[in-house]
Amino acid sequence: MSKIFWTGVFFLMSTLFALSKENPTDVITVVTNHLNMVFTVSDKGKVIYHYFGRKLDDYSGFTGRHYANRPDTPDEFASEIYPAYGGRYYTEPALQITHADGLLTTDLVYSKHSSKNIDSNVTETVIELKDKLYPVIINIHLKAYKKENVICQFVSVINDGKKDIQLGRFYSAYLPLQKRSYYLTHFHGTWATEMQMAEEQLLPGIKKIESKKGVKTTQSENPSFLLSVNSPATEDAGEVYAGSLAWSGNYALSFELDEAGILNVLGGMNPFLSEYSLAPNQVFSTPEMVLTYSDSGKGQISRNYHDWARKYAMAHGDRLHPIVLNSWEGAYFSFDENTITGMVDKAAEFGIEMFVLDDGWFGNKHPRNGDNAGLGDWQTNKEKLPRGINYLAEYTHSKGMRFGIWIEPEMVNPKSELAEKHPEWIVKSGKREILTMRNQWLLDLSNPQVQDFIVKTFDDVVALSPYISYIKWDANRHVDNIGSEYLPAGKQTHFWIDYTKGLYSVYERIRAKHPDIMIQLCSSGGGRLDFGALKFHDEYWASDNTSPLDRIFIQYGSNLFFPAIATASHVSTAPNHQTGAITPLKFRFDVAMSGRLGMEMQPKDIKGDEIDFTKEAIKNYKLIRPIVQLGDLYRLVSPYEGSGWASHMYVAKDKKEAVLFAYSLKYHNRTMSFNIKMSGLDPHKKYKIRELNRKYDSVLDNNDTFTGDFLMTAGLNLNVKSLNESAVILLTEI
Ligand code: DGJ
């Protein structure tokens, strides 16, 4: 008792000292060009969360007041910056610690804070909290990106004592909002129907969005959300908060509307089966929650995320991404050298810039001729490809194209040399049956030997040819029946977190060695679509569903957060292999061209006049690519609106060019035309319109000119009215 007592006295004294020294009534603010967060320190040392929203120039209203959102109550009821379980327990806690002596409560008070400029755009504020009695330090990190109006929050917990402590909850961020009503937009789906949007009003109680799948965590729900307050926001009006958790493991978002009418938002790693023990001096860091806010609707939210992602949350977001032909749907597992060189020849003819050899190129003892064998054995299959990968890569290079290759390094087929050699590397729950999914097991990335193996796999595959400049990284199963032979019995609950941290450490090592390689993030399609993973990748495969009608919805959801430059979007064959849909090639191109264009089919299946159309569309994409990949997205008509139309546009940063995409999702009667009011243009500029991929006249007067004001106020009437009709219109300042 006496030891704890004196430790407590010490912390209390040092806290009081820090408070008086740092002037506790000072307001702590985190500022971007248009936003800020405001906190104050109360008399009792609590850091109170007052405000997040449009930039306030005058904070004085908060000074000296310790509770903004729960009036007439003592300050210990006010919303804290990071509520820990203990004290006046009110809502779901962001943190729960079981201290070394078994005590379950924590009482955090202000210790100090500091702020430093990382560069001219980024400032990091760190607010240090300490428990009043126990030796634990919590640092709240808030990184403000001025131009992009994004604030990233993460938390580190430091065990400053001499014995292990247990963390039961460890969210990244807490956000209390006091508004009249709340409308949550979130995303759900499954394989081939990722990122389906749903919007609902939040009523009292808790709404939870989470994943307990470990891998492929975003194929069902996504850890990104929009929250309109006071009324549902539109594209260009209304107050919207948004968050996206940069974490590729189990996550939880919790929205708790309490009896005071306050919405308590929490987001972070899912505490599910994840109690984490922290040794003395060990630091536990949470992933970043990427937050932004707009008082002018949802469109600005997306543009903030896109600007931020291109600069800070993806690889090579400032350079144009190449047009890809991926071999999967054109060849699956059945190919030889001739099949591939034939695809390369056609791709080069079409103007494609990168050829990617998908699954099926490896395994000799257990050849990868289907999904039931070979995974883990990363040696070129000698029967299919006797002259090796370098022959194909060099051939591709000789045709003026770059070469990429597929791997799935976290996985293993039971029928593989790797599984025979390293059964101890496989995720399993003791002696229970190891369940397969797509005939495969998962490697235990909490084990450093497995991490080394994956880094070596990547190195070895890249070394197969100096012409390899792109890797497609796939992951086709989730985790069930967890268990690690590497982790000790008392730390099995570390598995979920250590798997993802192991994955990130692998990514970091790979990126340090191969900074220029393009890497595609794929997990059976959009199973790993989060900013935590995207940071190490150049792009993501949004879905195995390439059917244009479905892609319009999938890309609509994905592009609310993730930019077009990173959205691999491929033209595939008809009937579509997933949905059976038969659609015109033009419609398939017109949809794929609004992301990072590619193809996903046997190119020799394109015949007759479709050959010239394909060449023309690819040429057109090169024309609009800088606008699509580096410009600003304006959504004009949502496919969810129910009108049977959808439309969006990209506008170049200097507003000299723009490209409009318009789609008809159903048959409208023949007297109707699609009136579209544009957005984001300069009202004073004059634009010439030119229809691309023209098959029929969507625009009556091609080459006509209009002012930005006219296009944004009166709009254009387009002849796009039958199912699967579409138009792509380039606008150029004259
Ligand atoms: C799932 C991916 O989403 C596909 O694009 C393809 O790469 C297959 N895996 C290969 O097994």
How is this structure best described in words?
- It is a single chain.
- Helix 7 (448-462) runs parallel beside helix 8 (495-513), helix 10 (548-558) packs parallel to helix 11 (585-592) and helix 11 (585-592) packs parallel to helix 12 (609-630).
- Strands 5, 6, 7, 8, 10, 11, 13, 14, 18 and 19 form a ten-stranded antiparallel beta sheet that branches.
- By secondary structure, this protein is an alpha+beta fold.
- Among the domains are: 2-312, alpha-galactosidase from lactobacil brevis (Beta-galactosidase, Chain A, domain 5, Distorted Sandwich); 635-733, Immunoglobulin-like, CATH 2.60.40.
- It is 21% helix and 30% strand.
- The relative contact order is 0.08.
- Bound molecules: (2R,3S,4R,5S)-2-(hydroxymethyl)piperidine-3,4,5-triol.
Helix content: 10-25%
What is the averaged pLDDT score?
94
| Hetero compounds | (2R,3S,4R,5S)-2-(hydroxymethyl)piperidine-3,4,5-triol
Spans of at least 5 consecutive residues with low confidence: 1-24
Oligomeric state, counting identical vs distinct chains: single chain
Would you identify the CATH architecture of the domain at 2-312? Answer: Distorted Sandwich
Query: Helical stretch count?
Result: 13
Rg from C-alpha positions?
A: 27 Å
Largest sheet: 10 strands, antiparallel
Strand content: 25-35%
N- to C-terminal distance: 80 Å
Class of the domain at 2-312 in CATH? Mainly Beta
Descriptive tags:
Immunoglobulin-like; binds (2R,3S,4R,5S)-2-(hydroxymethyl)piperidine-3,4,5-triol; 734 residues; alpha+beta; 10-stranded antiparallel sheet; Beta-galactosidase, Chain A, domain 5; 13 helices; 8-stranded parallel beta barrel; disordered N terminus
